[in-house]
Amino acid sequence: MPEKRTIPAQSENFSEWYIQVVLNSGLAEYAPVRGCMIIKPYGYALWQNIQTELDRRIRETGHLNVYFPLLIPVSFFAREAQHIEGFAKECAVVTHYRLHWDAHQQQIAPDPDAQLTEPYVIRPTSETIIWHTFRKWIQSWRDLPIKINQWANVMRWEMRPRLFLRTSEFLWQEGHTAHATRQEAEQEARQMHQMYLEFFREYLAIEPYTGWKSPRERFAGAEQTYTLEGIMRDGKALQMGTSHFLGQNFARAFDVQFTTQEGTREYVWATSWGVSTRLIGALVMAHGDDHGLRLPPRLAPIQVVIIPIWGKDEPAVEDACQQIARMLQQAGIRTHIDLDREHRPGWKFHEYELRGVPVRIVIGPKDIQQRAVEVARRDTGEKQTLPWNDQLPTAIHDLLHTIHNTLLNQYKAFQQQITVEATSFQQMAQALQDGKVVCVPWAGSDHHEEQLQEQHNVTIRCLWTDDYEEPCIVTGQKTRVRALIAPAY
Amino acid sequence: MPEKRTIPAQSENFSEWYIQVVLNSGLAEYAPVRGCMIIKPYGYALWQNIQTELDRRIRETGHLNVYFPLLIPVSFFAREAQHIEGFAKECAVVTHYRLHWDAHQQQIAPDPDAQLTEPYVIRPTSETIIWHTFRKWIQSWRDLPIKINQWANVMRWEMRPRLFLRTSEFLWQEGHTAHATRQEAEQEARQMHQMYLEFFREYLAIEPYTGWKSPRERFAGAEQTYTLEGIMRDGKALQMGTSHFLGQNFARAFDVQFTTQEGTREYVWATSWGVSTRLIGALVMAHGDDHGLRLPPRLAPIQVVIIPIWGKDEPAVEDACQQIARMLQQAGIRTHIDLDREHRPGWKFHEYELRGVPVRIVIGPKDIQQRAVEVARRDTGEKQTLPWNDQLPTAIHDLLHTIHNTLLNQYKAFQQQITVEATSFQQMAQALQDGKVVCVPWAGSDHHEEQLQEQHNVTIRCLWTDDYEEPCIVTGQKTRVRALIAPAY
């Protein structure tokens, strides 16, 4: 394996810390394809755990999984005006369907005789091809609602790629639904937004800010975009997921009408919603510390690592490790024993700290004698001795639960502490300069928002309403709307 | 929903029967992208059930899931001579990374200013990019073996596409492993071949022919290709999965060497193996009958459908259906109630027959009175009355098990009956004319095989050895090798 590079402290260089943690913990590495990554076994196991639970929740709320093609005819993008504006600019275009040996250039190259009459785009998102198909699926109110989801890869050409956070190709799920009424579609968009929030809280141990996007930050083609904005440890916001109420925009663009119960013809109402492998970046940056990852137990590929202290009687220690591992595995705890003889325990401690394994159990000759094990928590570093008996799996289960709650509470405390309220533009500017994220009364326009970005390099991450009115920091107009203003990934 | 087209009898027009069953049962439909399909909820649920069990077996045998990029630089294909010969001819080529508005042509088009210096190919398979990466991952014998797998979409441009069987894009898993010795790699290739066989037998209720491919039919770049060849109900063979021993070909092409325990440098040994959404086509064609699908119970998205016969007291019937559904669901049986009021029971019977649901339970006023339910089997059409009591879930469980075995035995009987042995070329030719698949002693060359294809439109599907020698049907040379000769998909 290649030599490890040093991981700087978060406070020293957060973005270098991030990259080195991702690389050294074995989550992912750069691919020999511009802007793309290789998701390594540890990273993929994390994604698969996210997938399993999220898929369960998506199906439980009545959605069915499907698979639509990777390639989308270019002309489909021309249909929805804003959509092409937002997506067609940064996409991979397929123009040929064969390679040949180019004798002139002495290399293999696209065969000019195999040029497509209409080029294809690798999907940046699938609204267009799905609504093209909904036209065939939907005739009457009886065909509605349609609630589907797909797990897929998508591509958006990235000029400044960053592992998990911004890669040209990424993995995601995209939900797409079609409804007979505006109300039902709006409710669906909000319901999935809420589903994401619960999933993030219960599995990622992150409770992000929630609200809707300003018109400027909306999904291309949406009437309303609901968002979840986590604050990372460097004080920057990360958009963790979005749920869009698409109005009748895609139905109009692809002429999808239905016959109502009253016999009239109406356009269908739409939503779409998704989260991606970016969530792995969120886990790293929301919980990680100077020693590496701190993974929330319900998603951690390894929940407990057992490390032997060999002593004189190696077989006895190995046997004890195996016995304890079996006990825990039988109780459904993802347990790994590191029996490697080449590295010393201290090296292993560091390794599993870096990889964020929530619980470490150390077993040596003394522990066997005393029928006890030393248990260390990754989140707080605390150690305790637990009796080695039938109750051990339950004790570890409880500990994993406690670790989840501790990570969640630490996250919430951090988010609260870094957020300040400002009632004037000047207060806001000062708070931003102090590295805070700021909550302000807001009734500004696109133009004001643009200025904000130009002057302070921040954006409105999300909007929500409060109970009382206050004067907007840019217009002075009284408003119940609040805006979260922060720098962002 | 669009009007249903008539499904012809299998004996009348098998290939039209196949297409109509796939379309009308809701497995998939054609996409507005050349050679591609949309996998609909029922088809995807089937695929997800295949995935879940196969993924379990792949992980259980020590393989870790990963994800490599969709795009592969064209130059990677030039490295392995046979591989490019086999794959580069039929692939989607990405040449641009942006679209723009072409004012001259008045349409959106690839932006000439955004042409890639090196084009990318959408992966037809991932050996090249994986072995490029293995070069970084492998230095010494300590880094071996590496055993990884990925679930991904792949593209091979198809001129004559057919739903599930041959589509330009399809979903699959591809395993890739790296080993220190030839022996270990060969054993891995055989082990995964065997794993597929067991999975097919235990979940698909298909026990295909197994063996290795002739040099002519091998995977491009393999030293040995192990294959599984199911015989479909029209007497054509379908390649259901392959496992390749790749020798040191890819290690040489990408210069992947390792330091042995003795300190020497050697090239790494490789395997790869995969199965795809084609398996859904196999399920349709191996078990389907003139009424539609017959799904093996362990993969069926719906294992039991409950159909009410309304009578006078609708709420009582609905309540009984719900009670029975709950009992079965609690026992882990995938149960669906069709409470639709618009269609008559007879219409529903046909519908779920078409969709291949293994067990149908009918509940009407009489059944409630008698505390009994009418249970019909999709595989044999047999009906029986079962008492409605605590034992019902166990009885249904047993019935599902019996249906699995019946489908498997029917498949095996069919395969045996359609296969004949021939000891001369003439016998073989006659048997092929009679619509049989033929097993013959074989010591022929590529050339003989080519003639076979030209004259009879058949190929050698697989080879294996028997206990005794017989003269080859083309060379007369004594051989223990047997060849299965058949027309194929």
Topology:
2 copies of one chain form a homodimer.
Chain A: H1 14-24, E1 28-30, E2 37-39, H2 41-60, E3 64-65, E4 71-73, H3 74-77, H4 81-87, E5 93-96, E6 99-102, E7 107-110, E8 115-122, H5 127-137, E9 146-155, E10 169-179, H6 182-204, E11 209-212, E12 224-231, E13 237-247, H7 249-253, E14 257-259, E15 265-267, E16 269-276, H8 278-287, E17 304-308, H9 314-330, E18 335-337, H10 345-354, E19 359-363, H11 365-370, E20 372-377, E21 383-387, H12 392-418, E22 419-421, H13 425-433, E23 437-441, H14 446-456, E24 459-471, E25 478-486
Helix pairs in contact in A: 2-6
Short description:
Two copies of one chain form a homodimer. The first copy, chain A, has about 500 residues and is an alpha+beta fold. Helix content of chain A is about 35%, strand content about 30%.
Structural commentary:
- 2 copies of one chain form a homodimer.
- Chain A has 489 residues and is of the alpha+beta class.
- Chain A has 3 domains: 14-287, Bira Bifunctional Protein, Domain 2 (BirA Bifunctional Protein, domain 2, 2-Layer Sandwich); 304-408, Rossmann fold (3-Layer(aba) Sandwich), CATH 3.40.50; 422-486, Translation Initiation Factor IF3 (2-Layer Sandwich).
- Chain A is 35% helix and 29% strand.
- Chain A is built from 14 helices and 25 strands.
- Chain A has helices spanning 14-24, 41-60, 74-77, 81-87, 127-137, 182-204, 249-253, 278-287, 314-330, 345-354, 365-370, 392-418, 425-433, 446-456, and strands at 28-30, 37-39, 64-65, 71-73, 93-96, 99-102, 107-110, 115-122, 146-155, 169-179, 209-212, 224-231, 237-247, 257-259, 265-267, 269-276, 304-308, 335-337, 359-363, 372-377, 383-387, 419-421, 437-441, 459-471, 478-486.
- The first copy, chain A, has a 7-stranded mixed β-sheet, sandwiched between helices.
- In chain A, helix 2 crosses helix 6.
- Chains A and B meet through strand 2, helix 2, strand 3, strand 4 and helix 3 of A and strand 2, helix 2, strand 3, strand 4 and helix 3 of B.
- Strand 5 of chain A pairs antiparallel with strand 5 of chain B.
